[in-house]
Amino acid sequence: MKDAFYLRLSQKFYVVVSIMTIYNKEAHELITMSNIIIEFSEKEECTLDGANNIKEINDNGVLSVINPSKISRIWNARLNVSKTEGTDIQEGEYFIGEIEPEASWTKNYSLKVNEPLLKLTETIDTYSIGSQVLHQAFCLGKEMPVVIKIVVENVSEFPVENIRLEKQLPDGFAPPTLNVDTGKISYNEDERKIIWNVGKLDVKGKATAIVETKTTRTSTEPVRMGEINLYYELHGYSRTQAETTFKALTKYAFFLDNMQSEEDPEKWICKLEFQNQSDIDCLLEKIVVTKDGEEILKMESDEEVKAESTWTHEFEIISKEVPQLEKSVEFTVMSEVQRKLKGHIRKEDTVLPVVAVQQEKNIEPIEVPAYEKTTMTVITTVKNVGSATIDQIEVIDVIPKHFKPPDPSEVEIFVSDRKVDKDLEVKLEPPDQNSSMEHVLKIKVNNLTENYEGLTPGKDFKITYKMTAWKPLPEVTYAAPIHVIGYAKPAGPGAEDATQPSEPQIKIRYARRSVRSGKQYEPGKERGEYIITLVVNNTGEVTLEKVHVKDFIPKGFEVVEWVPKTAKVSVETEEEERYLLWEITKIPAGETLELEYTVKGKGPYVSREPKVIIPEEYLE
């Protein structure tokens, strides 16, 4: 008769738990160390340029199997990794072998990402006056109210914690006024550093900081607006969503006791006992008991056996003899997956230029003679001496009285030797050429960037025109000041440069007027005929205009002819005496003019000295 075997349906479990605890002094809290740790620890480093664009991003990680135990080692360790998309981790099983207490196995990996977990945006308005326009340049010598807006946005699928931002405030800026809608912000004046503890941002969360300050730039060098460093962490999350399965053995003992029943000698009470002799939690996966190769007990269930604890199980069999049983156990240390990430975004300085202009007004000749009309050439050069491209220029140019201004259509303007004919406005105030009053030439050129690629640093903007000195007076001071303003795009307050109100000064040379005149006469071919020659010599330093020469005609004589025939000659009577009047348009300095005419009459020719007359209107 064969022995009878049966498995008792009622199963009892006896587990004694003893958990080792470790005091973590750094965190000041008790932490239960009873599992092997499978850790995905990642580091994200990103660099943004000054315009908030991603310049470089690197995400790297370390996959670690950490044995936190101080006394127990593990062996036959195997790690299976799957779902590794987005990383360079090879899927499959990694045989690790042994890991000593407080030791670990590691594998480095990299991730393919396009953007960091947080989106950092910095916008700077260099001339914040409440408009919607964002100004991006400073103006030399002008106090500029500056607003810096910093936005941190969680664009990931995880809550991001321990967010901390540091921004350097450059020299030359006033201590800022700070406002945030999330977290706390402060300013370290010694380090000139803004510190913003944002804290935590949930998915799609956003935090904004407003920094208000002001500055007056005294140099044309571009202004580095200070870099930003943003630090953040993920707790319980990582970029990779890889899954792992870990198995390993640790110190244990497995017993099977056979005890004959006191009530029935053929009944045997069998007891399985699994002793976890480590300080690491274990998981029983499968227990099999066989007799003579025949499976009499099979248990497949996940039973946790805490560190330094014992698991037992009893069952009964019927056997006339002491049962010869074989046992096997499959178990593994328990593990848990931990994920974390530490991120850092460094935003490079936003570099903003400074608008500055320098004017130079040249007048040729700068010295003109009094009482004369002299054509003069005016060339004004506006140089971009700053670091910003200039998009708009305004010029206010004074033309003093006694100088005839140009017609606006005659003013020529050049940008880097290219003639300007677009978005140009030239006005003369008042709009006439009356030389008896002062005029202002106003020039405005817009959209230089669009039309002429802008007035870039180091390049020139030139204005040229002609004006006429209109009989200036020697005792009058003639100043022709100029004022120029250059604007970036969009326009702020503008950078200015101007001459002194009394400069440039046009010099008036008092030219000495001197006239030498003479007369000679002689008989002509016929009786009673006389040929008279008048000599007028301009011995002065200035051209004589509208000169009248008068010569007495004796009684009984008439003018027969004169040379040249084209001369403007007339006979006038004054106080019953007659004179021959010559009207001469111009006698340049140093030149001699000979006037000849013939008279004929009876009696002696009585000669008088001619009169050379410069009209009063010329002397005004």
What do you see in this structure?
The strands form 13 sheets. An eight-stranded mixed β-sheet has the order 8-5-4-27-18-12-15-14, with no helix packed on it. Strands 30, 32, 34, 35, 36 and 39 form a six-stranded antiparallel β-sheet that branches. The N terminus is likely disordered. It contains two helices and 51 strands. With 620 residues, the protein is mainly β.
Q: Helix share of residues?
A: under 10%
Low-confidence stretches: 1-32
Number of helical stretches of at least 4 residues? 2
Secondary-structure-derived class: mainly beta
Mean pLDDT: 90
Number of distinct beta strands: 51
Shape: rod-shaped
Distance between the termini: 157 Å
Radius of gyration: 53 Å
β-strand amount: over 45%
Widest beta sheet: strand line-up:
8-5-4-27-18-12-15-14
Biggest sheet statistics: 8 strands, mixed
Secondary-structure map with pairings?
Blueprint: E1 13-16, E2 21-24, E3 29-32, E4 36-48, E5 54-66, E6 74-82, E7 92-99, E8 104-111, E9 118-125, E10 138-139, E11 143-154, E12 160-168, E13 177-180, E14 184-188, E15 193-201, E16 206-216, E17 223-224, E18 228-235, E19 243-249, E20 252-260, E21 267-276, E22 282-291, E23 294-299, E24 303-305, E25 310-318, E26 325-333, E27 335-347, E28 351-352, E29 354-355, E30 357-364, E31 367-369, E32 373-384, E33 392-399, E34 403-404, E35 412-415, E36 418-419, E37 424-429, E38 439-445, H1 448-452, E39 460-470, E40 478-479, E41 482-487, E42 495-498, E43 505-509, E44 515-523, E45 529-538, E46 544-553, E47 557-563, E48 568-574, E49 577-587, E50 592-601, E51 611-613, H2 616-619
